[in-house]
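Lab meeting prep.
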Amino acid sequence: MVNRLAHITRAVLALTVLGSGLAAAAGTAPAADSARTDHTGVRLVSAVTAAGAEPTLPFGIEIVLAPGWKTYWRSPGDAGFPPEVEIAGSQNVAAAELAFPVPHRFELFGLQTFGYGERVLFPLRVTPERPGEAVSLRAHLRYLVCEQICIPYEHDLAFDLPAGAAGLSADAPLISAAEALVPDDGARARWRVTGISVAGDQLQVSAESAGVPFRTPDLLVEGPSGLIFGKPAVDPALDGRSVHFSLPVERFGNAPEVATSNLTLTLVEGDHGLERAVRVADFAAAATPVRTGGAGMWLVLAIAWLGGLVLNVMPCVLPVLVLKLTGVLEKAGAARRDLRASFVASAAGIVSAFLLLAMALIGLKLAGLGIGWGIQFQQPVFLAVLAVICLAFAANVWGWFQVPVPAFAGGIAAAADSAEFRRPRRAAFLQGVLATVLATPCSAPFVGTAVGFALAAGPVEILAIFLALGLGLATPYLAIAGFPALVGWLPRPGRWMRWLKHVLALSLLGTALWLGSVLVQQLGWWQRGQSDDSIAWTRFDEQAIAAEVARGRVVFVDVTAEWCITCRANKEFVLLRDPVRSALGAADVTPMLADWTNPDPVISAYLAGFGRYGIPMNVVYGPGAPRGIALPELLSSDAVLAALDAARRSTE
């Protein structure tokens, strides 16, 4: 193993030479709120326009770096030193604490360093000696920037805040966004450390996620002098819900044992971070046990079954169920055995389709691709094939099946038609498959909960929960198969059935036209505007949410798609009607629209952060709910208005 102290020694010597040769570069210009060098631009900024009466004032130091250059985190790694701020000469300033956003790992010449490239804003939390009075901040900043060489810089920065009411400045969104990047205890990303131990010269750390999944996580460990922690071997679970790290540890001199040392763990995934102080020897006693057990799984399976049952009355699936019952009425004189076989075949088609869907999602998950409920509707080929199938079924109902249908697109429908008289069980099976396919763009009570749990779990759980969903959707079919006498409760066949068949055919035709409209939008041939919404939607930007909340605003996020029927129902019956429409148009509300019609990894990650894998999803943010209030799949005016009021209330 390469001796890291040798690398560090060489780096320190190099910095010493550069520091002596570039003393002029440090600069001794008069204090100002900004400074520039050949490689950096620096600003001292404030989130407020006056001191107000706050016990802590939100400042920040922004460093903009030239391309290819970087600066350092509080623990820079094998080389470098962190930014330092001294406040000598300030007036009415008791203390100033520099906070560090989530860092990134850099590798150069075998050295591991941690820091930032391009641009970084360090929150600076200033505590006045006498809150309510004017503050004169004088900040002497020392920092290091590196590319092929390293250059230390120093600046004297100044910022004066008058006394008075503390309004928000133009830089408040930047500082709020930077504060959101400072690692917390895991609450924002819904992470937790579940295990830490020492095995030989390896530190073993495990973590779990109930929110933001682990895709390319990293772990940075800080400890006493003389303990050096190498780059971890990372083993994330396939579903992104857990991760295990194994870090090599080197001890030098009189460094303490790792097991008895106080360590700081910083877990990083993209812009999300968790920070936790731990002591290996004490962790086992303090760790929260992981809840397991069959009772929880049985509850989820019951929820999945209820969700599948409710899907039968959703607008996506209802035409297929009614079409099935109409076919039964036409054969009212058939033997009960034949009726039972027909409904069992339809139920088998439903369950088989759900299991195939589950296996497809498991395959995508194992491949590391995004997954979700209804994501096949983001694929134009799928939409085109399904639209042709719906047209074929409508033609079948109208008795027009002699109209030729392309074999590559109408194979399933043609099979259903040829089987109508010769192989009725196969036709019933295919009707069950169609019911499942049409169900997937629908969300309903219990469905989102079950699907979210399934897709966050492993392959066995996915199969079990999708089986329960399929059994729920198939329950009406199985009920009639078990009790064929239920058919006798339906009206007797007559001329009204001819009109009903026409209505059902029109519903299938409408489904095909709707699928076609989604298809042309996905292909970019036509875009349906939002002018009919009468709501001033802004484009979804997760990073902008924190900035809006920092300004005291309420943010309403609507994750929707053109293929999501439940989303359209929520919009037409709740969002576009008063009093909700007026509430979303209030001066302090920012409505954000996240369009998931086409695949979008940013929106997929946002959904996963709430443990959701399907839509609709609506979330309300505000000063009283900075982490968001997730609303149920089926909206109501009372639920939306209550969430807006709760988010509007300040937590102070």
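Slide two material, second protein:
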Amino acid sequence: MKHSAPLLLSLFFLSVSGCRLAESSGASGGITVEWIYSEEGKDAAAIPSFAWLSDGTAILHDHRRPAKERTLERFDPRTRKRMDLVDAAKVLERLGGLLEKDQAPGSLGWPAVIARDGRWGIYLFGGDLFALDLSTSVINRITRTAAREKSPRLSPDGTKLAFVREGDLYTWDLEKGVERRLTSDGSDTLLNGTLSWVYWEEVFARRDLGYWWSEDSTALAYLRTDESAVTEMIYQGFEPNIPALTRQRYPKTGGVNPSVRLGVLELASGKTTWVDLSKHKHEYIVRVKWLNDSRRLAVQAMDRSQTRLDLFFVGREEGKPTHILTERDKGWVNIHDDLYFLEKSDRFLWASERSGHMHLYLYDLEGKLLGPVTSGEWAIRSAAGAVSWLRQAVHSIDEEGGWVYFTSIRESSIEKQLDRVRLDGSGLERLTKESGTHGIGFSENGRFYFNQHSSGSTPPSLSLHARDGSRLELVAPSRPGIFSSLGMLHPEHFSIKTDDGFRMPAELLKPAGFSPGRKYPVIMHVYGGPAAPMVKDAWPSRTYFDQVLLNHGYVVFRCDNRSATARSKALENGILHDAWGSGELADLIEAIGWLKSQPWVDPDRVGIWGWSGGGSFTLRAMTGSGEFRAGISVAPVTDWDYYDTIWTEAFMKRPQDNPEGYERTSLVRKASELRGRLLIVHGTHDDNVHPQNTLHFVNELIRAGIQFEMMLYPGRKHSIRDDPARRHLYRKMLEFWKSNL
């Protein structure tokens, strides 16, 4: 139920205009739903994709170029020169002969994988693998199978490609052109090197990270998942005449999880050595990483309650674990990717929230704490993760200079800035200059980095910097003219002080020609989940629908409840046993109280909306208060019994351990208390938040005699992602706001 990049896209949330304002606004052009889903709209804020290579140069792919001219480019940070690396026309012509017409791309896109040395780019077309030799612009088909290949990853030496087909691991020798099957017991419920849904979603943050190459390219560590005992969900289509059924293994709260083992497969022998964690009680294997010597693995395991995480080092040959450290938290331990082994000494960096804030610590390889690297009443924080529960803040380690480079929310929880600090904890300094959000990508040698910068009023740009922070080149400048010509309006950021003194981050967007002497309808967009803020000083590429609402005379409002701000683990733990419950609602009511006290707000015309967790929060607000005249709830969880084990049990624990909490937070049980007009939306094939959530809630509305509107999207999943459905949804939302606010 977490929101993600595509999900946020729908954020656009908010509403549309109130009756009388709608008729006088919105017809003047500007950003429209049609523009948002046009190629122009999708590319307006684009900046080049990039990948650093082992020789210190980078590969770029610039979406700003006309589609037929897009190709892979080589960029040298030393000379600042960029030049086409691949003859795209040659590649596309050959692909035209290798693929069916409906599969052939119209332009050369970004590869699924790029070799570290820049020799190969791997593509997936129609479920088959293709290898592009970047030095010759020759692309060749690797596979031609009825089954789909997925999760390709090149070996560090660039000679072999690993991938997964029908639950089994394979390799392809790029020089010899030979395929090799590594495992043979894969099936619908037994998965080698690929993840079950709940691990993909909750543990690895929507990344299919089911195997890992050793640095010496001679072995693969992989997860073997047996989900035969996991409960099965079934989704019915609408064609053919006997509709097709889609099946999914999905563990509901309190139920049986997939059984997961970790093995190390030696390519020379084909033998797998299984890691033996039987003497260490655990439910989940949550991270795997090779040490620099390729002889040992770092393995993180967690218990079912998620209050304890253990780090082990495991010998590659015997599979026996050595316990290194334990993390504990009274609520739950957040999983992260900030584990780094230093190359010039027997030490490693580790992130922890033991102080109440996420910080870095230095250890020796025996697990002895050498000291904190960062500290204080602030947190390191990922800068550009696709989802809020992907935590990776460290970007580079300069061992010779003694520096660690990381992004943080040290100065503001709505910004992401690049800082550096010495390994001994001294010399903390900020490197990025501009306010806003900075996404950082360092070269392998640590001498240069790309900075993807934007703010709420500044479209994205890409710049090259030296490691001391000095800017060397503006690779792709910001393009504000595109948006100013469309009359785009920008948010005001501020904070709202609660009765107990906490300052909640907030933002407002006001229509053009705003007059404080008039009364305006307001639409509040919410999410509310732990460490998942909606208020950000970043370019709103995924929330352009705000502008449509502004054009129709609405004010758009967001305010993060304290547990959503990501400022500290202590704040997150406030939802323990009561997620999307009384604490979050109390903060929301205070925010609405502030809003309605503004002289330009029409207090009788305030709406609320959200998606996924925000859809749940919308229903919580409309059943727990009478503050909202109307609301839109998209893909809500309406009872924690209907959601998955890992996410839900982190803060709610199992139903059998917290029955009062499950009952207290059930929206199904509160449906009869709904106040205000409701539009509820769901995709019929939502494999994240199952349609039963909406169906059960509306059934209770029917029993209570409460009228509502409902929109189902056939065959769509959680994000209702395709352009026609998105256009339809936002037009439906606009229509609803016009009629009800």
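Talking points for slide two:
The longest strand covers residues 601-611.
The chain is about 15% helix and 30% strand.
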